[in-house]
């Protein structure tokens, strides 16, 4: 009975040669797939053992980019190609499909190797200053375009250079399709040529809502991780079309700027009397300043025969000037201030909010949280010592102030 069954199957395939070839093709595909799985598993196992024994990061990067898996795809395709002699009826069609897949896989392999090479290059210190990712992406695009042309040639059975000769008439369409790519490529060249942007730079682009560190510079996009950990994507060519602020200079200078004012109530500004001067002489930071200033003023008034019985005559010390000198001495002696960079305490034009005394200096630590802490400590101290100079901080009246005023009015009434 079994002999009759197998005889019927053989006669069925003998009468249907096309079905027979499809059956053979299915067996070839199944065998090729099994070989692919075995090759991929064995290749990854060998590669991981080899990578574990070496110190270089290149083999680890190849594993991360799945280079072995991409290369393993060649094995089943080559197996199918070598067994096409068993398929006289459908062999040509299968051969075309295999050639298409081999062409695409070749482009994919080149792309994977280039991206793996870029990942290895990014480990180098110079990669931040000279990224090559955008250039490699251009090469990848060209490789895929060439692969596409070859695939069209395979389908039409025309030489690839014949197809290339017909692309001249399509130049306008090609330029339109690849407009952003061309603009981004040119922008990438200018960014590198003029050293405008590095990976790791802190940039601000309010028009795109970007305020943070550059984490990736690619052909078409630049990724910025904002301080709230969100990601802003900026088209590469927009970097040159719009203005942006790069804080790299601050990092290279080793200082982060403090530029903040204390607003002094102008009604509290006055000349210094002897009691104030005696108190100021006890302050270590300004002892020498007060002593030298008194000698300078006394000499000036004596040389110009100033009548010092009237306060407005001649030159005299003021509490605001002495406070400004104290603030300058405090900034100069502060261990967290970068003494190599500009530092000063200056008056700004008075206004409805009082007289601004601006502190302009640079911290010697550019880390954001440390910078904010240093700045807060400086102004905590200066705000606390303002009353020692018989000055008052200007502050708009609050509800509590009006309540106290109302209470006083009622008590007097």
From TrEMBL:
Looking up Pfam families in the UniProt record yields: MS_channel_2nd
Question: Keyword annotations for this protein?
Answer: Membrane, Transmembrane, Transmembrane helix
Instruction: Give TM segment ranges.
Output: 22-39, 67-90, 96-114, 135-155, 161-178
Where's it found, cell-wise? Membrane
Which parts of the sequence belong to the Mechanosensitive ion channel MscS domain? 180-248
Q: GO molecular function: any one?
A: mechanosensitive monoatomic ion channel activity
Note the InterPro entries from the entry. LSM_dom_sf, MscS_beta-dom_sf, MscS_channel_2nd, YbdG
Q: Which domain of life is it from?
A: Bacteria
Q: Which GO terms describe its cellular component?
A: plasma membrane
GO terms (BP aspect): cellular response to osmotic stress
Keyword Membrane on this protein? yes
Q: Is Transmembrane helix tagged as a keyword? A: yes
What name does this protein carry? Miniconductance mechanosensitive channel
Q: Look up and give the organism this protein is from.
A: Caldithrix abyssi DSM 13497
């Amino acid at each position: 009975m079994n002999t009759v069954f197998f005889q019927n199957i053989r006669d069925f395939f003998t009468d249907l040669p096309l079905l027979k070839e499809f059956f053979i093709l299915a067996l070839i595909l199944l065998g090729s797939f099994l070989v692919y799985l075995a090759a991929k598993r064995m290749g990854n196992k060998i590669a991981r053992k080899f990578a574990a024994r070496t110190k270089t990061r290149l083999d680890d990067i190849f594993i991360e980019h799945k280079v072995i898996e991409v290369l393993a795809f060649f094995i089943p395709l080559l197996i199918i190609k070598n067994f096409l002699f068993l398929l006289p009826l459908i062999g040509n069609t299968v051969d075309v499909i295999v050639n298409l897949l081999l062409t695409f896989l070749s482009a994919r392999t080149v792309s994977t190797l280039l991206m793996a090479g870029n990942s290895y290059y990014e480990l180098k210190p110079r990669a931040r200053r000279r990224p090559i990712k955008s250039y490699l992406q251009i090469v990848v695009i060209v490789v895929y375009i060439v692969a596409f042309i070859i695939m069209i040639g395979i389908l039409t059975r025309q030489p690839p250079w014949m197809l290339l000769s017909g692309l001249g008439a399509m130049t306008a369409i090609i330029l339109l399709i690849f407009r952003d790519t061309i603009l981004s490529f040119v922008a990438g060249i200018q960014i590198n040529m003029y050293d405008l942007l590095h990976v790791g730079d802190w940039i601000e682009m309010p028009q795109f809502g970007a305020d943070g560190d550059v984490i990736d510079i690619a052909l078409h996009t630049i990724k910025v991780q904002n301080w709230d950990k969100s990601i802003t994507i900026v088209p590469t060519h927009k970097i040159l079309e719009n203005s942006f602020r790069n804080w790299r200079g601050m990092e290279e200078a080793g200082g982060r700027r403090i530029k903040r004012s204390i607003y002094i109530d102008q009604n509290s500004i006055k000349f210094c009397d002897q009691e104030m001067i005696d108190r100021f002489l006890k302050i270590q930071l300004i002892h020498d300043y007060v002593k030298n200033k008194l000698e300078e003023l006394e000499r000036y008034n004596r040389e110009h025969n100033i009548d010092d019985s009237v306060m407005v005559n001649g030159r005299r010390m003021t509490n605001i000037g002495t406070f400004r000198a104290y603030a300058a001495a405090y900034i100069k002696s502060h261990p967290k201030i970068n003494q190599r960079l500009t530092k000063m305490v200056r008056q700004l034009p008075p206004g409805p909010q009082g007289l601004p005394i601006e502190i302009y200096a640079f911290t010697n630590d550019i880390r954001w949280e440390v910078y904010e802490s240093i700045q807060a400590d400086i102004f905590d101290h200066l705000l606390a010592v303002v009353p020692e100079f018989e000055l008052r901080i200007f502050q708009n009246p609050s509800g509590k102030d009006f309540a106290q005023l109302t209470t006083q009015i009622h008590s007097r009434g």
